[in-house]
Every structure is written in C-alpha cells, then in structure tokens.
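Contributing new complexes? Match this layout with tryptophan.
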Amino acid sequence: MSNNKRVLTGITTSGTPHLGNLVGAIRPAIKSSGDQSTSSFLFLADYHSLIKSQDPNLTHGSSFEIAAAWLACGLEPEVVTFYRQSDIPEIMELAWILSCITAKGLMNRAHAYKAALAHNSEQGISDLDKGIFMGLFNYPVLMAADILAFNADVVPVGKDQKQHIEMTRDIAARFNHLYGDVFNLPEALISESTGVLPGIDGQKMSKSYNNTIPIFLEEKALLKMVRKIKTNSLEPGVPKDPTNCNVFKLFKAFASETETKDLESRYYEGIAWGEAKNVLFELLNAELSELRENYNEIIGDRKKLEETLVHGAGKARETASVVLKDVRHAVGIKSFTS
Ligand code: TRP
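Output block (do not edit by hand):
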C-alpha cells in the first residue's frame, strides 16, 4: 500500500447528472486524481440515496447514470478507486460500530435533521419528529463510516457538507480516545466555487429546484434548455451587464479566458439575448458532444460498466478490510485464539 494522501468523495445517486455536478464535483475530482502524490477514492453513495428516495427505479437508474457520467467525463478507473458504496460491506459494519459511540446529542445538531424539525414546526405540526426517519437522523454516521473505512486524509465537498466532516472528526476522535489510535482525522476541502453555477431560473443549479441542465442531453434538447434560461428584458442594442447574467455565468464556467472577454465586450455592445444564447449553446455543445458520445458508448455496454465497478469494489475492499480488521480488534470483536 502506498503512503499517498487519500482523497475521498462520494456522490449520492438520486438524480440525473447535470452541469452543476460537472463543474462543481466531476471536473475538479478528475483533475485532482491526476496528482501523483494522492490516491483518489470516488464512490457512488447509493445507500445514501435511500434517505431521500424510496423509488427503487430512481436509485438504480441514477446509480447507473452517475457511474456512466464519471467515466464519460474522463475518470480513469485504473488510476483511481471507483466503486459503489453498497459493494463494500465494511462500510455498513463500521456504521454500526460508530453509531454505538456517537452521542445522540451530536446528531440532534445535524443541519439536515434540524431542517426537517424546523419544517414541521413551520407547518404547525406538534410532533416535530413526524415523517423523519432514522436514515436521515443517522446520515452523518453513515457518512463518517464512508470516510473512516478508508482512513481518508482529505474530503472534497460542497459547503453544505462541512458540518458532516466536522462530525466525522468528532466521531473518529471519540473512537480513538476510547479504543486507541485507529482513525486519522480527515480534513474537509471546501471548494468555494461549488454550487455557484446558476440553473435555468437563476437559482443555484440543483435537482431540488428543478432547474438543471443535464450533461448528456441530445443537441436539440440542449438548445431548447438554453433558450429557457432566464434573462432580463433588455432589447437588442442596449448594453448589458455580464456580471449578473445567468447566460454569462454558464458561459464563463466552460469558456477560455479569451472567449469570456470576447463575450463580455459583446454584452457592452448590446448583444441580443437570442444571440447570447446561441453563443452559449455553441460552446456547450462543442464541449459536451464528445462527452455525450462517450456516454452513449458506455451506456451501450452495461456489462463493462458493471465489471468496472466490481473491480473497483475489489480494490476498495483491500483498503477497507485492513481498517476494519484494526477496528474490530480494537473494540474486542475478534477470534478467541488471536
Ligand atoms: N452526502 C454527500 C452529499 O450529499 C455525499 C456523500 C456521501 C459523501 N458520503 C460521503 C461525500 C463521503 C464525501 C464523503 O453531497
């Protein structure tokens, strides 16, 4: 096993991959996986999907789409460890062990749980726990297990996940205090740019707002989406401000510096919205058409994708099984003869 720094991140499989995922997670993770001094662990958080959705087709379909998306965007399964959470029994085992030493009070403070309580309170519901399930409550423990099963050093996440990494550190430190030093305390790597990509309505691009542009739309559908992006009602010929414009922000996320400067001057010259959208569409289409081809090829060979993930799980378990051996031993779950 190499002494490389372990970088680990997971993607919940409860939606269709969109441009926000591409810019915020997929591109940076693939880029950093090229760094020789790190080992990357990238996984499909399919058990996390059950917290949000009880639709088996959605969970299954989304796992497939997201796996294919990563590969289509250039992830090299030989270079990184790429796997499905559900293929790693060590994660589930660790989640139980960690839950036995995690204070309930710590979980009471988790943002997702508190938001659910607040929602009930706003609705005037007297039982604040109504409709809240243990999966949501335990979510930070499962996430800690995802991370600690690999003794990860660095966890790149969006700002909304920062608290979960802090909780992971708390849980790891408590375990080490009780049982001896088994876990490394992981650091969050918060990408400030994560989530700033606007959706077609101008809010953050997110599947919960229903405003996403999927990465692998066919050309016509992509053009239709781009046409829907919200702009103000300034007429052609009237100078426009690029700084607060959704079309411009999307353009910038994919364009070179020169291309961005060019479009910027066209805004000041009063480009028409229809034309600005054409320019955006051309850029996106050029950028995405190769990915779309890769994607279509990958989804045409389900067997190969399955094999890739099974192989990745084998690699992942080589690491996780070593950690779990130490964990079991530390807590006193071990053979009578060793
Ligand atoms: N909860 C994360 C999200 O919704 C996904 C995730 C699950 C994750 N397990 C993880 C991210 C472990 C980093 C490390 O974005």
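Reviewers usually confirm one structural detail per submission. For this one: The first strand starts at residue 5 and ends at 12.
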